[in-house]
Design goal:
The complex is a heterotrimer of chains A (171), B (312) and C (676).
Chain A: H1 2-9, E1 24-26, H2 32-38, E2 42-48, H3 54-60, E3 74-76, E4 85-89, E5 92-93, H4 94-106, E6 112-116, H5 118-122, E7 132-134, H6 136-139, E8 144-146, H7 153-164
Parallel strand pairs in A: 2-3, 2-4, 4-6, 6-8
Antiparallel strand pairs in A: 1-8, 5-7
Chain B: H1 2-31, H2 41-51, E1 54-57, H3 62-79, H4 97-116, H5 121-152, H6 157-166, H7 174-190, H8 209-212, H9 218-243, H10 254-281, H11 290-310
Helix pairs in contact in B: 1-9, 1-10, 2-9, 3-4, 3-9, 4-5, 5-6, 5-7, 5-11, 7-9, 7-11, 9-10
Chain C: H1 2-21, H2 26-53, E1 57-61, E2 71-75, H3 77-100, H4 111-130, H5 134-152, H6 159-190, H7 195-201, H8 207-225, H9 234-240, H10 243-268, H11 274-296, H12 301-328, H13 332-367, H14 378-381, H15 383-396, H16 403-416, H17 424-456, H18 463-466, H19 473-491, H20 493-504, E3 523-524, E4 531-532, H21 534-554, E5 561-564, H22 582-592, H23 594-597, E6 600-607, E7 615-623, H24 627-648, H25 655-675
Antiparallel strand pairs in C: 1-2, 3-4, 6-7
Classes of the chains: A alpha/beta (171), B mainly alpha (312), C mainly alpha (676).
Chain lengths: 171, 312, 676
């Protein structure tokens, strides 16, 4: 019964629309060498540096059948040792500053950092708070910012692909 | 001629192994109604890992850096003994099924030590669980070997395959079918598939195999992942070629070899579909329910031997 | 040969005298070790000579003891094999002991007694293999037991040691009683105590008596070997004894039980009904499984190893039991396969268990604790000890290409060959034995991941472990010798197995099975059932590691390596309290086998007096039920104590009462004499 339902439903993954204006900002150009190394297979470690979890909900959408990040060879891993990219959300709080640094240090080179959400870029509504150290870029070097509060999964995917220097059409 | 061909068989297995894992992965993605990564994705992953830097824990010792090579070498050593395409002739007398089992245990043993080495809680947890599952799976493997050996009069893989080819009725005897079922369950447990271990999990507390290797990176991780996919392929090929040996080449003519490649790919494909369907269907078992599953497989194996005895 | 024999006795004797005369200093200790090494070396040469030539060494000094045929010695190839095992175990242990006993230099321990007893123990044990009549055998057996008792009692100042000594001496004497009974029954039929006469008369003894002799001998030798349920002294005595003595007792002395069993059941009695083999096999399986299960729950390093001795004796007995069964059914080549598997494991266990006990001794020496939960990180502080212990751990876990694998493979093959037994009811039970043996070896691997991983890896769990130091050179050298033996015996079974076959030729009517094994690099079982070559596996593994390394180098892949903290989810700092403990490691298996362990749990939580939401301290205790002590030995000991208490009433201290006793006994005796 389950199998017949699977067959009837078919593949539901939507193609990534490249026409829409995407709120992706490249903080710095990634090196060609890194693009070549990580272009076809990317492992992501997600770091919540103090976010409200809105971005996390959107990020979890990446692995859903609709957005399916795996078709681009992108998957999430449990340990920064296995990761090539840190996906950081939220303003960096005082308590998460050291863990974020440690995570960055634990990730083997070459590595990329994508900051997701407005908070990660400029602390959003938490700006100036006593508990906040600053934006992600204040703590670790960031390659790409994806703005939005929260950004949609498709936009996050765009951001990740931009860090790799890949255009979305090339699946 | 045999000197050229025989070492090419392990090479073939080592080269093909990531594809098998990738294929199962792709099938699972399709069953989840996703596009999924292409079946050859694991090759990109391995290449990427080989090019990356290695980060080693300060708390770990020299053992931690040796283990990936030991694990990889012991798994590759097994491929010399397994009839993937044809029966190894030079290498058949080097090791039998027991040697295969213990060589794989060698890898597990050192990997478990490497899990303990950096001194993290997750690593120790993974090692403890992995050794528990490995120990409880052992009796089933041994008794299944017994039942295979009973039919063939030998524990050597070559003899078992040749015997089964000579007498096709053994393949559908009840003893054989029961042993196949027992070994299939054990293969799932040993290679860390559902319902024993979830290869796709990100949650450390539910991990077994993955938890042990959380500290590995770069080329070390590549070797361990490659060895794991090779172990998966070895178990599938054993299931395919010991129980249904048709297609395994007995001579080295090009047609026989071509037929062997096609037959192997077909059989592996069928098993991959079976496993993908199973992994889509079932949930992971609680760790303390795993012994019950393995207990069932042990009983199946015992029944297999008994029925082989009675029908001999 | 006589010269060799006399040289052996002289060396041990001089070693013992040197110990008594010499002091506590390094010279005295050196002389003790020298005597033991020389004696063991010459003994090894004597054994090797007997095996090589096939000519037994005979020496009879009947005047020395004017009863029971006097002192009769004869070293045939079976005895010679065990003499070789003594030599292989004793040389490294003695070398190690020279450094190890330095710790006793300024303690309340008699180094003199230790040194003298060490040499005498080796001498007595060597004589056990040489004995050729009942009197010599039993005397030497008792000598071996008593000297080893004194060795166990080295640190007699401790309560635990005295308790262990009491257990040991009681168990070994219970065993001796069985042996005396068995031999008395046997000699009653033969009329003489000489082994040759016993062998000749064995066929004339009635079946019931033969069975009784066998069971008594099995229990007697089993108490020495440490079969379940007579194993209770091992986990007590081995931790109490100095480590080089533990290595000898566990690696070598308990094998004398196996020697005795083979000598009596196979050689003197000439084999027996199938149930003999079944009994040995069954006890072997139970010992192997329970031994390893209890070892898993042990966090005292030396107790853990002691339980593993129970396990390995079980594996040896599985091989011998299978051999006895095949012997009954007349399948001689297969019987030889079982015995060869058992004997090979005897040799291998002497090396790897000796090595592990010496390694545990070095750890104890460095950290002053046997509790694994207080160790950790020793691989960085004691690199050589760690390497040697790792080799031993891999060997005992039967990992190829080390020696444990070769002998376990043979034992497995002998069980698989059980299909050839013509009685289906018996043959059907073989797969169960195969399964349980496989479970045993899997659990052993898990246990040694724990033993090595918790002891040597990760961060030190106590200040002692953090300040541990590598042991002195003599100790490293002793361990190194055994580690080399583990590797050598592992990769050269093609050379060793035919020799074992030759040793067994003629014992109990066995043919020379050495010829059945092909002498090329592969090892093939007599029935052609299995073929395997650890030599080539070892070469292949080394070659493959080399290939992988050179391939990585050749393709110029990223060779950078960076050190960093362990990944702990971003937390600051890492302490040993975050590590997995030995208890935690064994927890899943404890839950799986809860039916056997019957664990008891105790949880005490102290709340803050103000609010129960604040916990001040939590105490968690969990123990497994020592089942054998509780249900088997405690009732027995209690009833013995009760009877002793009742008997004490007779001793009232009144002279009149004692006179009455004498009068009553005299009357009874007279009456009995009148009527009989």
């Amino acid at each position: 019964m389950l199998l017949s339902k699977i067959i009837r439903t078919g593949v539901v993954t939507e193609p990534l629309n490249s026409d829409a204006v995407t709120p992706v900002e490249l903080a710095r150009e990634t090196r060609l060498e890194i693009r070549r190394h990580l272009g076809r297979a990317l492992a992501i470690r997600e770091v919540d540096a103090g976010s409200c979890n809105g971005c996390e909900i959107e990020i979890s959408g990446l692995t859903s059948p609709v957005y399916d990040s795996e078709r681009f060879g992108i998957h999430f891993v449990a340990s920064p040792r296995h990761a090539d990219m840190l996906l950081v959300t939220g303003p960096v709080t005082r308590n998460m500053e050291v863990p974020l640094l440690k995570t960055y240090e634990a990730t083997p080179a070459p590595k990329l950092v994508v900051a997701v959400g407005d908070c990660a870029k400029d602390c959003g509504v938490f700006k100036g708070s006593y508990a906040v150290v600053g934006s992600v870029a204040d703590v670790i070097p960031v390659d790409v910012f994806v703005t939005g509060c929260p950004p949609e999964p498709a936009e996050i995917l765009h951001g990740i692909l931009a860090a790799l220097g890949r255009s979305p059409q090339k699946k | 001629m045999t000197y050229v061909l025989e070492p090419s068989q392990p090479l073939f297995a080592v080269a093909l192994a990531p594809l098998v894992v990738g294929f199962v992965h792709w099938l699972k993605a399709r069953m989840q109604n996703r596009t999924g990564a292409p079946p050859w994705q694991p090759y990109f992953e391995l290449l990427k890992l080989l090019r990356k830097e290695v980060v080693v824990s300060k708390q770990a010792s020299w053992l931690f850096r040796c283990v990936p090579y030991i694990v990889f070498a012991s798994t590759v050593a097994v491929t010399f003994l397994v009839p993937f395409l044809f029966v190894p002739q030079r290498f058949d007398s080097v090791g039998d099924l027991l040697a295969v089992v213990y060589l794989l245990l060698l890898g597990t043993f050192f990997l478990a030590l490497a899990g303990l080495d950096p001194g993290t809680a997750f690593g120790g947890m993974g090692s403890s669980r992995e050794m528990t599952v490995a120990a409880i799976a052992e009796p089933t493997i041994a008794v299944a070997i017994f039942s295979l050996a009973l039919g063939a009069g030998s524990t050597n893989l070559g003899r078992i395959v040749r015997q089964a080819l000579a007498d096709p009725t053994t393949a559908i005897s009840p003893g054989h079918l029961l042993a196949f079922a027992a070994l299939f369950i054990v293969a799932l447990a040993e290679t860390g598939r559902l319902p024993v271990d979830n290869p796709a999990t990100h949650l450390e507390l539910t991990m077994i195999h993955e938890a042990m290797i959380l500290e590995y990176s770069g080329r070390h991780l590549a070797l361990i992942e490659w060895a794991a996919s090779l172990k998966f392929m070895i178990f599938l090929s054993l299931l395919a070629n010991l129980f249904v040996p048709w297609g395994v080449a007995t001579d080295f003519t090009p047609t026989a070899l071509a037929a062997a490649v096609i037959a192997l790919l077909l059989k592996l494909g069928l098993l991959a579909v079976l496993i993908a369907a199973l992994e889509t269907r079932v949930a992971k078992l609680r760790l303390f329910r795993v012994p019950e599953l393995l207990g069932v497989s042990f009983v199946l194996a015992l029944l297999a031997v008994t029925s082989s005895f009675l029908l001999r | 040969m006589k010269t060799l024999f006399l040289a052996m006795c002289a060396a041990y004797g001089l070693g013992a005298i040197a110990a008594l005369v010499g002091g506590r200093n390094s010279l005295g200790r050196g002389l003790v070790a020298l005597g033991a090494i020389a004696g063991a070396g010459v003994g090894l040469a004597l054994g090797a000579l007997v095996i090589a030539t096939g000519i037994p060494f005979v020496l009879s000094v009947s005047e020395l003891l004017p009863l029971g045929g006097g002192l009769a010695l004869r070293l045939d190839s079976l005895g010679a094999f065990f003499l070789v095992v003594i030599g292989i175990g004793a040389i490294p242990a003695a070398l190690y002991g020279a450094g190890y006993t330095a710790a006793y230099e300024n303690g309340g321990v008699s180094v003199r007694l230790l040194g003298a007893m060490f040499n005498l123990f080796l001498l007595a044990m060597s004589f056990v293999t040489l004995a050729d009549n009942v009197l010599t055998f039993l005397l030497m057996w008792e000598g071996m037991s008593l000297t080893s008792y004194f060795l166990v009692m080295t640190e007699a100042g401790e309560e635990r040691t005295r308790n262990a000594g009491l257990w040991y001496i009681s168990m070994t004497h219970a065993g001796l009683v069985m042996l005396v009974a068995a031999f008395l029954l046997f000699t009653a039929g033969a009329g003489s105590g000489a082994f040759a006469d016993l062998r000749a008369s064995a066929a004339l003894v009635t079946a019931n008596v033969r069975d009784t002799i066998f069971v008594l001998a099995f229990l007697g030798f089993g108490s020495k070997a440490g079969i379940v349920p007579l194993h209770v002294w091992l986990p007590r005595a081995h931790p109490a004894a100095p480590s080089h003595v533990s290595a000898l007792m566990s690696g070598v002395m308990i094998k004398m039980g196996v020697y005795g069993l083979l000598r009596v059941a196979l050689d003197l009695l000439g084999g027996g009904p199938a149930w003999w083999g079944g009994l040995v096999l069954g006890v072997g399986v139970v010992s192997a499984l329970l031994g390893v299960l209890y070892a898993l729950m042990e966090h005292d390093l030396k107790r853990l190893l002691a339980f593993h001795s129970v396990e390995n004796i079980g594996i040896i007995l599985i091989g011998i039991g299978a051999g006895l069964m095949f012997h009954h059914y007349g399948l001689m080549p297969l019987a030889a396969l079982g015995f060869i598997g058992g004997l090979y494991h005897v040799l291998n266990h002497a090396t790897f268990k000796g090595l592990l006990f010496l390694g545990a001794g070095s750890v104890l020496h460095a950290t002053h604790t046997r509790n694994m939960e207080e160790m950790g990180g020793l691989i960085k502080r004691m690199p050589w000890t760690a390497l040697f212990f790792l080799i031993g751990a891999a060997a005992i876990s039967a990992l190829p290409p080390l020696n444990g694998f070769a002998s376990e493979w043979l034992v497995f093959q002998s069980l698989l060959a059980g299909v050839n037994i013509p009685v289906p009811e018996v043959a059907v039970l073989m797969p169960l034995a195969v399964g349980l043996l496989a479970l045993t070896s899997g659990l052993a691997a898990a246990c040694f991941v724990k033993a090595f991983g918790i002891t040597f890896l990760a961060l030190p769990r106590s200040a002692e472990a953090a300040h541990a130091h590598e042991s002195p050179l003599s100790m490293q050298f002793g361990m190194g010798l055994l580690a080399l033996a583990c590797i050598g015996l592992g990769i050269a079974p093609f050379a060793i197995v035919p020799v074992l076959g030759r040793i067994l030729a003629g014992v109990g009517g066995l043919p020379d099975a050495g010829a059945e094994f092909t002498l090329n690099v592969s090892l093939q079982t007599p029935s052609g059932f299995g073929q395997m070559s650890p030599t080539l596996i070892a070469c292949g593994l080394l070659l493959l590691i080399g290939l992988v390394l050179s391939a990585l180098w050749l393709f110029r892949l990223n060779r950078q390596m960076r050190l960093s903290d362990s990944w702990g989810c971003g937390r600051v700092g890492q302490t040993a309290r975050m590590e997995y403990t030995a208890t935690a490691f064994a927890e899943p298996l404890r839950r799986v086998f809860a039916e056997i362990y019957r664990p008891m749990k105790e949880l005490t939580v102290d709340f803050h007096p103000g609010s129960k939401y604040f916990v001040q301290s939590i105490e968690y205790r969990s123990e497994i039920t020592p089942w054998f002590d509780q249900s088997l030995y405690r009732p027995f000991l209690q009833s013995a104590a009760f009877v002793a208490l009742q008997v004490r009433r007779l001793q009232a201290g009144s002279l009149h009462l004692y006179l009455l006793y004498i009068a009553v006994v005299l009357t009874v005796l007279l009456v009995v004499a009148r009527w009989s």
